[in-house]
Amino acid sequence: MYKSAYLNRIYDWIQSMNGCEKEFLNAIEEFLDSMEYLVEKDPNIEKNQILERLVIPERVFQFRVSWVDDNGKIQVNNAYRIQFNSAIGPYKGGMRFDKSVNLSILKFLAFEQIFKNSLTGLPMGGGKGGSDFDPRDKSDNEIMKFCQAYMAELYHFIGPDMDVPAGDLGFGAREVGYMFGYYKKLTKEHKGVFTGKGLAFGGSLVRTEATGYGLCYFVMEMLKKYKNDSLKGKKVIVSGKGNVAMYAALKARELGATVVAMSDRSGYIACDDGLDLDLIKEIANAKRRSILEYSDKYPSVIKGSNVHDIWGVKCDIAMPCATQNEINIDDAKKLVKNGCFMVAEGANMPTELEAVRYFMENGVIFSPGKASNAGGVSVSGLEMSQNAEHLSWSFKQVDEMLKEIMKNIFDVCYNTAKEFGDETNLSLGANIAGFKKVYAAMLAEGVI
Ligand code: NDP
Ligand code: 2IT
User: Fold this and answer.
1) CB of residue 264 inside a 6 A radius of ligand 1
2) Which residue from 80, 315, 330, 398 has the highest number of Cβ atoms inside 10 Å of its Cβ?
């Protein structure tokens, strides 16, 4: 229950329409919590029905993708593209390939993307797409066939000034390459329609590393502001071993932290003296290898098959970088009990709302993914600029720009949170600051 009757009405309305979409409802609830601070002060939000217009996607595409596997068998998958909000720029957001993908998950991700993209300061709207296709047990040829069949439908709806997809969970440089190639074949145009492209055909340096690096740059700002401290000597848990996790772990190590635990779907490994990240990278780069194989070389490593047990490892800082709802209330209690004082999300909404509230009540400084993982989409925005200018910038140039963007995002979240009376509440700062720009654009663009 909100104090504001308007917010209660919005929530009930969304629930009546989307009652079974629990991930999407969670994202709405988290966002409306922050709007409580704003809607009473600014009656124009209600008068212009801004929230009603914000919580329904501008457009949702759902289509069938049929393709033939290596055994000649016909396969059928569900595929989607959500074009949620284009008030401040063309739709922008990743593509997810995972068995679990459904409309609720993609709507939650696309909704989050609206505010994340707004926070970057770059002109990008919010979108997301994906499929329940599982790339993990497929051959390269099958992945190419699937990407081409997907693009045969998707190409109608995307374009450099319309909607620009990129990678996300289960969708990396290989998938971007196949999709981009097929778009080019269908349209005969070599355009910046995807980001995260290979360097040989319009990709940007630092895009691969951007989300993980950006997360560490954001954590540096958090440490500086709240603790007058740095990552040096801190013990850090980084969950996952994918794109975001790996580059977060490597950058954390470079900045003087010790990565004490990492994980994947098969379980977690932990070592108080620090993990051998080069070995984890080798495992992560190989197909179908489990992180638990780490013990073949280091038999004394602590390991377990329950992924939640990673949050029982003693640390100063936790960086959940695998997927949504990784940290539940019990995990949050373990972290607090063990002295963890900072949680920075690398994944999108890895922390359940109850756990976020527990962190706040217990003095743990928390940053939401839409702020701290915005480095990936920020460099995607820089890739779009380079494509539009037919230029490519150096690694150092893009890395410096990423650092600056992450600092700006932290500053705007912190300053907004402070303005609204709680300088430790970065979720509040992120939601309000992200919303304000979208709101201003929606007002200016009229009722459309
Ligand atoms: P990847 O596919 O590269 O890696 C995902 C990692 O998470 C893998 O190690 C995977 O394990 C693990 N994982 C997936 N599901 C589970 C689960 N249910 N339990 C435990 N571990 C799991 O994806 P990314 O690194 O790209 O994305 C990770 C998160 O970051 C997602 O939430 C994504 O939305 C978010 N994100 C990604 C950005 C990007 O630029 N890529 C940008 C901003 C946010 P396994 O290795 O066994 O498959
Ligand atoms: O969640 C995200 O921000 C991403 N997956 C990156 C999106 C992008 O367009 O680079």
Assistant:
1) yes
2) 315
Ligand 2 atom with the smallest distance to the CA of 109 is 1
Sheet holding 365-367, edge to edge: 302-304, 267-270, 258-264, 235-239, 317-320, 342-344, 365-367
Q: What is the DSSP letter of 425?
A: B
Give residue 109's pLDDT.
98
Mean pLDDT by 10 residues, the chain (448 residues): 96 94 97 96 97 98 98 98 98 98 98 99 98 96 98 98 98 98 97 97 98 99 98 98 98 98 98 98 95 98 98 98 98 98 98 98 98 98 97 98 98 98 97 98 97
Indicate which residue's Cα is closest to atom 10 of ligand 2: 377
- Which ligand sits nearest to residue 101's alpha carbon? 1
Residue nearest to atom 7 of ligand 1 (CA): 322
Sole residue written with tokens 């990673």: 310
- Quote the DSSP letter at residue 255: T
Active site annotation includes 287: no
Distance from Cα 323 to the centre of ligand 1, integer Å? 5
Ligand 1 centroid–CA 140 distance in Å is: 20
81 within ligand 1 shell (Cβ under 6 A): no
**Closest to 322 (Cα-Cα) out of 330, 314, 331:** 331
Q: Are 378 and 405 in contact (CB under 8 A)?
A: yes
The active-site residue out of 92, 107, 116, 128 is 128
Q: How far is CA 317 from the centre of its chain?
A: 19
Assign 83 to helix, strand or coil.
strand
Please, which residues have CB within 8 angstroms of residue 250's CB and are 6 or more apart in sequence?
A: 209, 212, 277, 281
pLDDT at position 281, please?
A: 98
SS3 content of the chain, % helix, strand, coil (to 5): 50, 15, 30
Cα distances (Å, whole numbers) of residue 404 to 49, 54, 164, 434: 35, 29, 23, 17
CB of 373 closer than 6 angstroms to any ligand 1 atom: yes
Measure Cα distances from 305 to 263, 267, 291, 327 in Å.
9, 4, 10, 16
Q: What is the pLDDT of residue 287?
A: 87
Cβ contacts of 361 within 8 Å, gap of 6 or more: none
Query: Which of 105, 244, 307, 328 for a ligand 1 pocket mutation test, highest count of atoms within 8 Å of Cβ?
Result: 244
| Neighbouring C-beta atoms of residue 173, cutoff 10 Å | 16
